[in-house]
């Protein structure tokens, strides 16, 4: 087990180097001069542009820029964005907010998705099952910005149950609405995955055996059916955490959440390579760790799976 | 249906409850000159300043709106753009080239430092010097010694044209006479800075200290991407005294979101109604909405390095293009009255504006004449169809696609040529192509005034080699006319000369003026006394609670 963990952590190193190099190169190759983004609509003089290029190392070739950035990582100085704010401050500001939002969305989709999926799977073909299937199909089909604006308008503006936008503190109650919107599509997937797995496992030999030896139906469902049905769901949830952290641009925009998605989007538009790479690097670490956790959960869910 | 009616009633009930509570609290409030509750903190929409808040390093609206409130320059502009003295006691000149500027006594920054002549001179020198890489550096280009300080790689950090006489007096020597120089002094680049700013500009840019009607509310006033909290500066004595208990700029990622906050009373003032709500905002807000023309315009510049668009034939084609665009219809249908058709190259709120400069008929819709001119141009030099006309715009900020498509359709229908919009993914890509002269067609251009002067709309865009001259227009006669206007002895004579220079532009059409900007904004049920200024920015200091 310890060796397995060590190996997985060592794998982080090449993943980290490869990913930073690739992303730095991609941002570097984006067309357009980054000083044009700094100077804005009014532009600035060639002398000022030259001074800015020097200040942000934009006059250096790609390899020099990349190694300067790597050096910064190991000295805990990631530099600043074009507005002069330290990148470490930006990371410390956006990640907690987005993590809170993503985890709330994840809990929502996991709890409701699994519970409803389980009930639907057990009542296969009944009215409840068919209704849930149609509903989840609709949720998957409607684009997230439509859902977002609709919920914002109905709940925030018309009913006034919540503020239409999230304040700077991004408190738990304020994030409920955006988290619901963010988790809604994945919720439908989790529901469908659970339902299918439950239906499949309900007909398995060990479930028949368990029922035959007189276990209560509660124990059969919870321990034998549900636990074995969790493998595909947990895999999906693990991958989804990464997607929720980095891909909440639309939801964050609608509810004015000051999070990772929008910061990343702006940094890409401005060509701020160090900001983009720093954020993406943290996302990669989150992604890798979430996958590690999923792998460990496999062993717990299904004792047949072991790690050496 | 029943559902929506219920929610409406709920909404009304909530609004009534809110306004009742507002009245209830109003008993012991201070009242102001204009009437209204001076104890309210105004929540306004803002955008994250793109640079540290240093006056010489801020050239966009997000940071500009904050700077204008926390600083007082030598002069400021009233709602109509008329200059009024702030820190300046007097600005005197005999020849429009040598200025003597006297400051009012006993002015202070909010950290207690006195505002002296050096506060201005040092700040301006800092802004001009190339080594400090300040974005607004070019605003000092008229001052003698600027070229030495601002040259690439220069180590000179002082302009020879600035001299401190005593604590409250300094002199400015310009390279040549320029009568509208005093008019520029209300722009943020010319604000004073305390000595601490220049010692540690980085720290200062996060926690700016000014001398204006407002100041930062403590150490955490600026929460990046979230809000900027300003409170009144009690020590400020000037024409823009705060009529409220503070202004908090709430930073929005997009206008649509801000609008939802406005109609649910979570936001007090919104300065730009999002495109998607332009059709319904007057219904939603009623008398809480405003349309106020401001000093900005929209044009499309056509570079002279394109073969179809140079020489005599190019000039005729530019005129034909201009006459093929139905400005009245586009401003009415697409912008719902949020723009007004252009008659020249500046903006109507400016002093000296005229809508009947000879040549302005080139901006009127006239499809027959357009066809005729196009034919005439073809007889001089045939139109090269392989060089297809495009209109470039950026798709990341602002909503340009709709109107570009409308203009494209006008041209296509009236001239029968191939033309299309050319979206660029990011703003910086368009700018890079424009500055490197690699555009393959026309480009969206436009100007928002820095200070209320005709020269500000002409000099930086159309003089030979100017920074924003995307069309690469070079006309010695025009340059001379602008210089004549700048060096005129009075502002009136200057304006006259500027409009004479515009006659050349109206005939040559380096860019095709489309329309003037109109600010479309709104406010909540909680505030009153909202007025928008000459530059499309609300006069935040005058807003009060109800």
Tell me briefly what this model is.
By secondary structure, chain A is mainly α.
Word description of this protein:
The complex is a heterodimer of chains A (308) and B (546). Chain A has 308 residues and is an all-alpha fold. Helix content of chain A is 78%, strand content 0%. The longest helix of chain A has 36 residues, at 87-122. The radius of gyration of chain A is 24 Å and the shape is globular. The mean pLDDT of chain A is 88. By secondary structure, chain B is α+β, with helices and mostly antiparallel strands. In chain B, strands 12, 13, 14, 15, 16, 17 and 18 form a seven-stranded mixed β-sheet that branches. In chain B, a hairpin with a 2-residue loop joins strand 6 (162-166) and strand 7 (169-173). The longest helix of chain B is centred in the first third of the chain and has 23 residues, at 2-24. At the A-B interface, helix 2, helix 3, helix 5, helix 7 and helix 11 of A face helix 1, helix 7, helix 8 and helix 14 of B.
Task: List the topology elements.
The complex is a heterodimer of chains A (308) and B (546).
Chain A: H1 2-29, H2 34-39, H3 46-55, H4 62-74, H5 87-122, H6 127-141, H7 144-158, H8 172-202, H9 205-212, H10 217-246, H11 249-255, H12 260-270, H13 273-301
Helix pairs in contact in A: 1-13, 5-6, 5-8, 5-10, 6-8, 7-8, 7-11, 8-10, 9-10, 10-13, 11-12, 12-13
Chain B: H1 2-24, E1 41-46, H2 61-70, E2 75-77, E3 83-85, E4 88-93, E5 98-103, H3 117-128, H4 146-150, E6 162-166, E7 169-173, H5 181-184, H6 195-199, H7 201-206, E8 214-216, E9 222-223, E10 227-232, E11 246-251, H8 255-263, E12 269-270, H9 281-285, E13 289-301, H10 311-323, H11 327-333, E14 339-341, H12 367-380, E15 389-394, H13 401-415, E16 419-424, H14 427-435, E17 442-448, H15 454-462, H16 476-486, H17 491-508, E18 511-523, E19 527-528, E20 544-545
Parallel strand pairs in B: 1-11, 15-16, 15-17
Antiparallel strand pairs in B: 2-3, 4-5, 5-7, 6-7, 8-10, 9-10, 10-11, 12-18, 13-17, 13-18, 14-18, 19-20
Helix pairs in contact in B: 10-12, 15-16, 15-17, 16-17
């Amino acid at each position: 087990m310890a060796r397995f963990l060590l190996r997985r952590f060592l794998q982080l190193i090449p993943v980290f180097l490869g990913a930073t190099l690739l992303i730095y190169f991609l941002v570097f190759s984006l067309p357009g001069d980054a000083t044009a983004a700094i100077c804005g609509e009014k532009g600035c003089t060639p002398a000022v542009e030259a001074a800015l290029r020097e200040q942000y190392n934009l006059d250096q070739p790609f390899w020099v820029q990349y190694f300067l950035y790597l050096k910064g990582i190991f000295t805990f100085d990631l530099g600043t964005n074009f507005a002069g704010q330290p990148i470490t401050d930006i990371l410390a500001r956006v990640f907690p907010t987005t993590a809170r939002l993503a985890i709330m969305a994840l809990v929502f989709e996991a709890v409701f998705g699994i519970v409803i999926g389980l009930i639907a799977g057990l009542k296969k073909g009944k009215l409840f099952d068919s209704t849930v299937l149609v509903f989840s199909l609709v949720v998957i089909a409607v684009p997230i910005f439509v859902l977002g604006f609709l919920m914002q308008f109905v709940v925030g503006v018309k009913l006034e149950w919540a503020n239409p936008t999230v304040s700077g503190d991004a408190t738990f109650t304020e994030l409920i609405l955006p988290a619901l919107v963010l988790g809604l599509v994945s919720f439908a997937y989790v529901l469908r995955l659970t339902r299918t797995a439950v239906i499949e496992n309900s007909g398995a030999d060990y479930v028949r055996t368990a029922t035959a030896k007189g276990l209560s139906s509660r124990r059969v469902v919870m321990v034998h059916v549900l636990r074995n049905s969790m493998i595909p769901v947990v895999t999906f949830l693990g991958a989804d955490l990464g997607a929720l952290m980095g891909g909440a641009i639309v939801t964050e925009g609608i509810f004015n959440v000051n999070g990772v998605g929008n910061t990343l989007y702006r940094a890409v538009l401005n060509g701020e390579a160090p900001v983009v790479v720093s954020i993406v690097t943290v996302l990669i670490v989150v992604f890798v760790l979430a996958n590690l956790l999923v792998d460990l959960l496999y062993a717990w869910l299904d004792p047949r799976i072991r790690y050496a | 249906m029943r559902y929506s009616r219920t929610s409406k009633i709920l909404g009304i009930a909530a609004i009534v409850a809110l306004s009742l509570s507002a009245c209830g609290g109003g008993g012991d409030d201070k009242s102001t000159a204009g009437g209204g509750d001076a104890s309210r903190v105004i929540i306004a929409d803002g955008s994250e300043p793109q640079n540290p808040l240093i006056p010489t390093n801020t050239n966009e609206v997000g940071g500009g709106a904050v700077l204008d409130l926390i600083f007082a320059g030598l002069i400021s502009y009233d709602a109509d753009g008329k200059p009024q003295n702030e820190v300046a006691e007097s600005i005197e000149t005999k020849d429009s080239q040598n200025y003597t500027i006297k400051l009012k006594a006993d002015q202070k920054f909010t950290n207690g430092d006195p505002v002296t002549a050096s506060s201005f001179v040092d700040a301006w020198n800092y802004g001009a010097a190339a080594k400090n890489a300040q974005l607004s550096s070019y605003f000092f280009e008229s001052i003698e010694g600027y070229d030495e300080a601002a040259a690439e790689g220069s180590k000179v950090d002082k302009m020879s044209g600035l001299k401190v006489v005593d604590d409250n007096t300094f002199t400015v020597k310009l390279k040549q006479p320029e009568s509208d120089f005093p008019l520029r002094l209300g722009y943020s680049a010319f604000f004073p800075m305390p000595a601490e700013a220049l010692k540690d500009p980085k720290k200062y840019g996060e926690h700016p200290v000014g001398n204006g009607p407002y100041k930062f509310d403590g150490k955490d006033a600026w929460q990046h991407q979230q809000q900027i909290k300003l409170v009144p500066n009690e020590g400020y004595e000037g024409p823009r005294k705060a009529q409220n208990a503070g202004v908090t700029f709430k930073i929005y990622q997009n206008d649509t979101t801000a609008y939802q906050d406005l109609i649910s009373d979570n936001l007090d003032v919104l300065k730009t109604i999002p495109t998607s709500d332009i059709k319904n905002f007057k219904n939603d807000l009623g008398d809480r909405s405003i349309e106020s023309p401001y000093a900005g315009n929209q044009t499309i510049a056509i570079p002279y390095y394109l073969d179809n668009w140079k020489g005599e034939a190019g000039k005729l084609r530019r005129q034909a293009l201009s006459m093929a665009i139905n400005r009245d219809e586009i401003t009415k249908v697409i912008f719902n009255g949020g723009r007004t058709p252009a008659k020249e190259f500046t903006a109507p709120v400016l002093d000296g504006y005229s809508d009947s400069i000879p040549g302005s008929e080139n901006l009127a819709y006239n499809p027959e004449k357009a066809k005729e001119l196009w034919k005439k141009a073809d007889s001089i030099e045939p139109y090269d169809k392989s060089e297809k006309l495009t209109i470039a715009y950026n798709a990341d900020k602002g909503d340009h696609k709709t109107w570009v498509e409308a203009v494209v359709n006008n041209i296509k229908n009236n001239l029968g040529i191939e033309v299309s919009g050319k979206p660029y993914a990011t703003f910086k890509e368009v700018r890079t192509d424009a500055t490197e002269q690699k555009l393959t067609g026309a480009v969206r251009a436009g100007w928002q005034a820095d200070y209320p002067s005709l020269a500000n709309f002409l000099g930086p865009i159309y003089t030979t080699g100017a920074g924003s001259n995307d069309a690469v227009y070079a006309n010695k006669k025009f340059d001379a006319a602008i210089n004549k206007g700048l060096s005129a002895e009075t502002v009136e004579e200057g304006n006259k000369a500027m409009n004479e220079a515009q006659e050349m532009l109206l005939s040559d059409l380096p860019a095709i003026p489309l329309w003037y900007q109109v600010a479309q904004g709104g406010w909540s049920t909680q505030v009153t006394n909202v007025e928008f200024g000459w530059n499309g920015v609300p006069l935040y200091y005058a807003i009060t609670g109800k």
